[in-house]
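I'll show a typical protein example:
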Amino acid sequence: MGCGTSKVLPEASKKGYVSVVQSLIAFSKACDGDDEPKKHARGAWFSSGVKNPPQRPNSQQQMQRPQDKVARYKDKFDPRVTARYDIKALIGRGSFSRVVRVEHRATRQPFAIKMMEVEAPQGREVCASELAVLQRVSHSNVIQLIEVFQFPQRVYMVLELATGGELLERVVSRGHFTERDATQALRMVLAGVGYLHNLGITHRDLKPENLLYYHPGADSRLLVTDFGLATFNNKTCQVSGLGRSDTGDYISADKTWTLRTTCGTPEYMAPEILQRKPYTCAVDLWALGVIAYIVLSGSMPFEDDSHTRLYRSIVRGTYSFTGDPWPSVSNLAKDFIQRLLSADPAARLTADQAIRHPWVATMAASSSMRNLHRSISRNLRQRTSRSSSRCPSSTLSSGGSNKLRLATH
């Protein structure tokens, strides 16, 4: 976002909209739009859970991008890790973690390894929280944990390697984007989020940068990633009476959790978080409303250089459907966004309800097939230009990618 001095989480994204504009520039140079632009590997936030490696078709293995062929990363790895995996390249870094691209020595299948430093108490806490989530989940639209190596000073999480780029990068690279395309992406995200919510997991940091395509192909699945701020609710915690969790979130006598920790990425935070009210997994649906707004327009519904003014506009719900391309966007799409950006969490659609909304369920069958790509790309470019001019020294973190975690306990 702007140049504020907000406390940034250790694993905050350092890309934001900059990567999207880089993809946009690459796309504009492509001949007739047929060549896929260069994408920028993320990886620091590739995290989720299941125990058996997925069987990936050989055709997908052949879709590795040229930029993956970079200098081999050198660091001290436990021999038990290097005995199974060939270390290739560094693809992400955080205060307590680094992520490297690797190959399984026996199958030559590519993966990502997230190395978490756990000597410091805060590092152990971050690792334990993320690992607790990753070891429980297994869904085609949630990135998968393959296996874990745990040692006193470091934990190695072997994860799926998502090589298809971020959601907005894909929107920009396509050259043609309609409401139907938007619903295809949102259906996959909603499927993943609904699965998490049914397990009692609240993500708390949904945004386009954390939605990654598994491979560059048009038929790729879209994955929910980055569980650094995820937490559990009553479905996964057995408690009795009135108490307080280790994270400062409160538990009522009927065993339902009310989360209280203020955390997330500013532009995507729900009103109840900003007001420091108890909240539920409905905060994820608010974030999905913001994402849907961006995907259809390339603009943010809530944006301001000042965090104070930004938070005020979010709490008041002051956004509009003005400017290009909104006149060409269907009323059903706008209704979908409005039902997610409801200031009242109880009135907000759940993930299961959202995926059954007429606009999503029919895949925008009654919507205009107008190509929204030009308007979306222009708006993304203009926004990044404004962010860069306002804060040239922090270009890599512009675009509202900073995470906040202000403990209220």
